[in-house]
Amino acid sequence: MSNQPTNSDEPVNQQTRKRPLMEIDKPTTMTCTVVAVDHTSLCYRICSVCEKTLPENPTSSCKYCNFSNSFNPRTSGSKHLFRVLMSIATDTKVFVVVMFDRAARVLFGCSADEFFDFAKIHPYAAMAAGRALEGEMLTVTLTRPTNGNAQHLRVASVVPLSSSFQPAIETLRELYRVKGVS
Ligand SMILES: [Zn+2]
């Protein structure tokens, strides 16, 4: 343990010379490739009245505004929004960004509610969606998080570069349609 290597395999000089990407102070547009999507948590549930985050439990109503959803407990009172963590690679580095509803809809091709309903019937849909997006080339505009607690750069907008790009939900529908017939 005493003769530790001198970290010679780390290109320290190259990385420190450039301005660290986590310190962008204005929206920055770049081309990147999707490395991986965190499929374990693609969306979250909010109260449709006050938009506070709710636990992922269909029977719980909003404790903040005491909105009563007893008339139609399943559909009214709450909705889902995308919140997707994904690793992207630029020509210099790989890092994690967070993508909220507006940007994520571009890649998923549907609302978070539609995706959630689809995933309820198809348990592996989230994993398959992540896989469908891996390797996709994108032009993203990244912004610094406005919330001081946020750890990741935020995807303000996203444009798929491939002319053959199709939203994840389309890929999934094809996938499950094929499997369903056989
Ligand atoms: Zn509420």
How would you describe this protein?
α4 crosses α5 (168-181). With 182 residues, the protein is of the alpha+beta class. The protein has a domain at 21-42 and 83-181: OB fold (Dihydrolipoamide Acetyltransferase, E2P) (Beta Barrel), CATH 2.40.50.140. It is 26% helix and 28% strand. Residues 4-20 have low confidence and may be disordered. The structure holds zinc ion. The site of zinc ion has 8 residues, from loops. This is Replication factor A C-terminal domain-containing protein. Residues 29-120 form the Replication factor A C-terminal domain.
Short description:
Residues 1-21 are annotated as: Disordered. This protein has 182 residues and is an alpha+beta fold. It is 26% helix and 28% strand.
